[in-house]
């Protein structure tokens, strides 16, 4: 039986939509359609099929592939579609039945709901979610370059030779040894992953049993690693704490959430839901990584989480790598929490002895609800009355022992690690599904890509960049990583470039009072150019500073260079970054690799890919030990982590029996 429908709203297979129940779509259908006409997430992830609207079937098929829908012969499941002649059959994940869309040429003639097929959509969504566990890896296929190594799960590692079209179907072309070629149709791209390893892989011929033997050995090693990791994490999971599910606290939480002046992005909503689920529905202390680019809204998520914990009578500690970030967080928290009865404290090396004594006393008595600070909050002098959660901001800046110090004192502590470019070991645990992770890929609606120039240093380019920014009333960061060179750079800008505006120097060896004084004056617009070390990497949020100049990026780590670039473009104005290096031929091979990786990952939301590339450049032996570098090089990091994930799930299920 088929019923006519005026229009069909098709949403993509993304975690944001998969988390929604059917009733949510009906309640918000008009808002979804309205937002699909605006630039941003909804426009890229929502499709409205309506009678009379023109669509080329070939382009529609391409779009549905991008929505992660699967092309099949016969539809049986949400997230599938088929095309036969001029008829499209599609089963959107937001409906309980599939649809038939009849085309008259390139125009939709009619749309019908097919009532003959109906399944439990919520149960189906859970199955789809498992298939999307490593969706972020599959997204890498969209930025493939010819010559990249790809892993086909059945046939092994080949060299990507482009995409070719045959009989209206796109095929990924993989080349193997002796010129063997494999053509993978686009609807089977889920069998492909980008090879991430630490040396060029061995390319074998198609066919034969060698790849099966390599996979078998890697799987055996993955199972051994999974056993070790489960043992480590099982000891933590044996500790419990009460659930955060007070009804009275929920009322306050809604009031706090609604006081936020901006609309959350879909990924922010998803991350908050993940974290709140950990706190409300489990007695096992949370251990989660929140990963998102600079300026993508991680701070609001931290604030909502901290508020929830405080409303349940617990204290929160927020650990920051620098005094500047701690100070910036303190200012932002005080402003965000000003209408609520929450006491916030700041403890850094800059805190004078008298104030420090009072703050430590107030932490011990429970008078301070949220303490923000540097490693000083880990001091033995600091005693908490009832610490419930530790937030580690910029987790890559802290060693394992530092991060575990409070966990030792408070075994039932909830942990939230926050990073734009997570350290390789954390990333590896997340990829293996051992550590819980929430990704924020979606930038705020007003954010624009940063226009980035990467090249050899040229005085005239630097001068023009500074003058253009000053001409539009903006401010400039000039970064030099060596403190001893800062006065010379300041003099160069003043005398060689002829810039007459106020310029100041700032670095971490200065007294904290002076650092904060300079930052305040820069924020107020009194200082136009800040000549700085990497001290600006964390916590600086100045919407009028929209040009960044780095004199020599070859001296910076890959994640560090990427994160520094995110210091500009915090408002609606177009931002520019000029990343210079000395003569190309004088650079080390690893510096060249870092610069190339940066050039390939300039789009907003590339922090995750930068972290993966950083892991690749640094080498597995240095990060995970020789035991694991062998199998990773043979099958690639993505497939190896998938094997560990499968082994972990199997072992955990066996333990529960």
CATH homology superfamily name of the largest domain: P-loop containing nucleotide triphosphate hydrolases
What is the name of the CATH topology of the largest domain? Rossmann fold
What is the C-level CATH assignment of the largest domain? Alpha Beta
The overall number of domains is: 4
The CATH architecture assignment of the largest domain turns out to be 3-Layer(aba) Sandwich
Low-confidence stretches: 620-624
Q: Would you count the extended β strands for me? A: 26
Helical content, roughly?
A: 40-55%
**Global geometry:** globular
Global Rg: 27 Å
Query: If helices are DSSP runs of H or I spanning 4 or more residues, what is the number of helices?
Result: 24
- Give the terminus-to-terminus CA distance: 44 Å
Mean pLDDT: 83
Strand content: 15-25%
Short description:
The chain has 657 residues and is of the alpha/beta class. It folds into four domains: 2-132, Penicillin-binding protein 1b domain (Penicillin-binding protein 1b fold, 2-Layer Sandwich); 140-237 and 633-654, Thrombin, subunit H (Beta Barrel); 247-440, Rossmann fold, CATH 3.40.50; 451-603, Rossmann fold, CATH 3.40.50.300. Residues 620-624 have low confidence and may be disordered.
């Amino acid at each position: 039986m088929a019923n006519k429908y005026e229009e069909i709203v098709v949403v993509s297979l993304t975690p944001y939509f998969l988390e929604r129940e059917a009733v949510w779509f009906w309640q918000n259908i008009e808002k979804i359609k309205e937002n699909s006409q605006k630039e941003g997430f909804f426009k890229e992830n929502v499709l409205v099929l309506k009678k009379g609207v023109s669509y080329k079937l070939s382009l529609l098929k391409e779009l549905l592939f991008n929505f992660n829908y699967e092309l099949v012969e016969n539809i049986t499941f949400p997230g599938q579609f088929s095309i036969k002649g001029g008829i499209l059959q599609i089963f959107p994940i937001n409906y309980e039945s599939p649809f038939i869309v009849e085309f008259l040429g390139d125009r939709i003639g009619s749309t019908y709901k097919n009532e003959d097929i109906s399944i439990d959509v919520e149960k189906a969504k859970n199955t789809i979610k498992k298939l999307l566990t490593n969706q972020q890896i599959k997204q890498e296929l969209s930025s493939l370059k010819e010559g990249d190594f790809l892993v086909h799960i059945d046939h092994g590692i080949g060299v990507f030779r482009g995409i070719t079209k045959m009989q209206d179907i796109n095929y990924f072309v993989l080349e193997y040894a002796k010129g063997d070629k494999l053509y993978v149709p686009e609807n089977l791209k889920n069998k492909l992953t980008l090879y991430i390893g630490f040396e060029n892989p061995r390319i074998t011929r198609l066919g034969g049993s060698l790849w099966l033997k390599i996979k078998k050995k890697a799987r055996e090693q993955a199972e051994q690693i999974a056993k070790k990791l489960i043992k480590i994490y099982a000891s933590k999971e044996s500790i419990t704490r009460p659930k955060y599910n007070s009804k009275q606290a929920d009322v306050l939480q809604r009031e706090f959430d609604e006081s936020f002046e901006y609309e959350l992005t879909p990924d922010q909503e998803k991350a908050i839901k993940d974290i709140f689920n950990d706190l409300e529905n489990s007695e096992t202390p949370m251990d989660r990584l929140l990963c998102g680019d600079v300026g993508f809204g991680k701070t609001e998520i931290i604030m909502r989480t901290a508020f929830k914990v405080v409303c349940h009578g617990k204290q929160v500690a927020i650990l920051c790598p620098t005094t500047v970030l701690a100070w910036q967080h303190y200012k932002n928290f005080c402003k965000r929490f000003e209408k609520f009865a929450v006491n916030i404290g700041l403890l850094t090396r800059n805190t004078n002895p008298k104030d420090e004594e009072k703050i430590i006393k107030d932490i011990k008595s429970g008078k301070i609800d949220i303490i923000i600070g540097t490693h000083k909050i880990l001091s033995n002098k600091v005693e908490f009355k009832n610490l419930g959660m530790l937030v580690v901001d910029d987790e890559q800046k802290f060693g394992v022992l530092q991060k575990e110090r409070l966990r030792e004192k408070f075994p039932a502590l909830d942990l939230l690690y926050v990073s734009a470019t997570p350290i390789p070991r954390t990333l590896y645990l997340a990829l293996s599904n051992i550590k819980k992770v929430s990704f924020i890929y979606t930038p705020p609606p007003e954010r624009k890509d940063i226009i980035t120039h990467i090249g050899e240093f040229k005085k005239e380019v630097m001068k023009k960049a500074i003058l253009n920014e000053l001409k539009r009333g903006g401010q400039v960061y000039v970064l030099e990583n060596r403190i001893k060179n800062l006065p010379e750079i300041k003099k160069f800008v003043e005398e060689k470039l002829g810039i007459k505006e106020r310029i100041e120097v700032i670095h971490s060896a200065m007294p904290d009072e002076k650092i904060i004084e300079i930052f305040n004056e820069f924020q107020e617009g009194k200082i136009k150019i800040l000549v700085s070390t990497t001290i600006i990497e964390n916590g600086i949020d100045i919407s009028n500073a929209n040009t960044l100049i780095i004199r020599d990026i070859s001296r910076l780590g890959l994640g560090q260079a990427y994160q520094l670039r995110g210091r500009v473009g915090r408002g609606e104005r177009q931002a520019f970054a000029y990343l210079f290096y000395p003569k190309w031929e004088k650079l080390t091979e690893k510096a060249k690799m870092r610069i190339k990786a940066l050039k390939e990952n300039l789009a907003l939301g590339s922090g995750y890919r930068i972290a993966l590339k950083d892991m690749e450049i640094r080498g597995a032996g240095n990060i995970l030990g020789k035991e694991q570098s062998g199998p990773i090089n043979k099958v690639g990091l993505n497939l190896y982590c998938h094997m560990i994930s499968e082994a972990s799930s199997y072992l955990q299920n066996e333990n529960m029996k």
